Amino acid sequence: MPRRSDVTREAILNAARERFAADGYERATIRAIAADAGIDPAMVMRYYGNKEKLFATAAEFDLRLPDLTAIPRDEIGSTLARHVLTRWERSETMMALLRAGVTNPAAAERMRSICATQLGSAFAAIGLDEIPVRAGLVATQVLGFALCRYILEFPPVVEMDKEAVVHWLGPTLQRYLTGDQPSSL
Predict the structure, then answer these.
(1) Which terminus of the chain, N or C, has less C-beta within 10 A?
(2) Cβ-contact 18, 36 below 8 angstroms
(3) Cβ neighbourhood burial of 126 (10 Å; 0-12, 13-18, 19+)
(4) What's the whole-model pTM score?
(5) CA-CA distances (angstroms) from residue 34 to 3, 40, 60, 120, 139?
């Protein structure tokens, strides 16, 4: 049976993720997060100290990248595009990071760290060179896509189904990762 403090912490984190995703870092308040969690704001401060520390905890995110070594070389870009799209569509944490990363230096650093470490590790496993450059270029595509689809809500991008996204985004990721020009271009 979970302790009451664990339940309270989890309620705070869930409320924080939702509030940061909906309002962004700057507009989200400790009071609003506490109200969403159904607790006194002092409890948020007790467990997390301040808004920045709460955000840092709420913004922990694992991309859960697939094992790229198990994927045929010519399918890496489309596999990664499909995976990232699926991951984004289920994550309030990534929405919060994306919104906050545009205006908050700590959130921007968190996004850079996630991309560098998690993408870098996956790319190293398949023996790529120039890993920081490749990770940065992949990040430009997936973060730009996510910004346009989920935050700015560009109608043509929002309306695309998953396979259409993979069709358009996959070849670019493929080129960034392997240097290959997909046969569909």
Answers:
(1) N
(2) yes
(3) middle
(4) 0.75
(5) 19, 6, 20, 36, 33
- Reported confidence tier of residue 83, pLDDT bands at 50, 70, 90: very high
How many residues are there in the chain? 185
- By the 8 A CB rule, do 174 and 78 touch? yes
The domains of the chain, with CATH numbers, are 4-58 (1.10.10.60), 68-178 (1.10.357)
State the sign of the Cα–Cα–Cα–Cα dihedral 100, 106, 109, 115.
negative
First-to-last C-alpha distance (Å) of the chain: 56
Instruction: Provide the b/e sequence for 22-34 (b: ≥16 CB within 10 Å).
Output: ebbbeebebebbb
pLDDT in tens, 20-58: 878 888 889 999 999 999 999 999 999 999 998 898 888
